[in-house]
Amino acid sequence: MNKFNKNAFIFELLLAIITFLMLGVMMLFLIVIIIMPISNYHHAQGYVEYKKQYKLDSQIEGVIENVYKENNAAVTKGDPIFKYSSEKNQQEIAALEYKESFLFNELKTMNKLHTLGVIQSTEIDKKKLEIDELDVRKEYLKRNVIYSPISGKIYFKILPEYIKGTYIEKGQELAIIYTEDDKHIRISFPNAYADRFKLGSNVLIKYKDPRTFIVQKMRGLIYMSFINQKANTIELYCEITKGREYLRLFNPSTIVNASIIINNSSIYEDLLGVPLNPEIQNIILKNPLYEKIKDHI
Question: Which of 131, 94, 128 has its CA nearest to residue 114?
């Protein structure tokens, strides 16, 4: 009888210990899943850009006739940058001049009729306004020089020695003018990842040094982002905090193969796609067991 009770006691004790251990393991596993951050690895190509820059876009279709500045040269606001010719503009100017001559003839006739008292002066004023609008349009079309809108340095998308004689389309980016030698890296990701990137997140950018072919690392922070609806992407702007000496070696528009690690979610959030309820998280964080093991997870 005593032997049976002793065995039963040992069995129940072992069962209690195993149950306690299992509960402890389950609690530890739960804490790890909820609290422990995970590393999201995202790979994409980034572009080196100047943080403060102004884009020079073509306002017309035409051919570049002359370039007045060299690449990376200093420019002052109002300096001429490009001169171009546009057959389309010349055709429109000729059509406007033809129409203008027709309106002048009409105006002469209207002046005679006004003298005779047939028409009022308001009709003549309307005709003069129409002629003035044609003149404004002609002057705009005759502007065949692109001037620098700000002072700074200029970087050409096509080098000046190759851009002469190049056909340009309306809205085509020809050059940028930057105001300081401070660069960042812009990286595009699909919109589906937008919720994973937060301002202030730490980033690690890896790239192969073109001089030594050794993989270098730069660290930084995401300081700005926006959704590009047209391209269905999120644009991240990364300010480099460590490794800036490498960043200075790159020209703008240089392509960088970037691997970014962002620690901004827990395993729970990544598995279920939603953040943990704050009330439950507070209960876990205040648990004495978590205080004992938090330094080990």
Answer: 128
Q: What pLDDT shows up at residue 254?
A: 79
Q: At what angle do helices 278-285 and 2-35 cross, to 10 degrees?
A: 120
> Measured between alpha carbons, how far is residue 151 from residues 113, 162, 182 in Å?
55, 24, 16
Continuous segment of H or E residues that includes residue 133: helix 121-142
Separation between Cα atoms, residue 155 and residue 158, nearest integer Å: 9
- The DSSP bridge pattern shows strands 167-168 and 152-156 to be unpaired
> Which pLDDT score is estimated for 1?
46
pLDDT band at 115 (very low <50, low <70, confident <90, very high): confident
- Which one, of 160, 180, 168, lies nearest residue 80 by Cα? 160
Examine the pLDDT at 95 and tell me if it is beyond 80.
yes
Q: Is residue 79 very low, low, confident or very high in pLDDT (cuts 50, 70, 90)? A: very high
Token pair listed for 271 = 């598995």
CB-side neighbour CA atoms (13 Å) of 255: 3
Which of 46, 24, 27 lies closest to 260 in space, CA to CA?
46
Residue type, 13: L
N-terminal to C-terminal alpha carbon distance within the chain: 48
Answer yes or no: is pLDDT of 257 > 80. no
State the pLDDT confidence band at 297, using cuts at 50, 70 and 90. Answer: very low
Sign of CA dihedral 162, 164, 168, 174: positive
CA–chain centroid gap for 130, Å, is 43
Provide the Cα torsion 277, 278, 284, 286; round to 10°: -170
The domains found in the chain, sorted by start residue, are 2-37+282-296 (no CATH), 39-50+183-268 (2.40.30.170), 54-175 (no CATH)
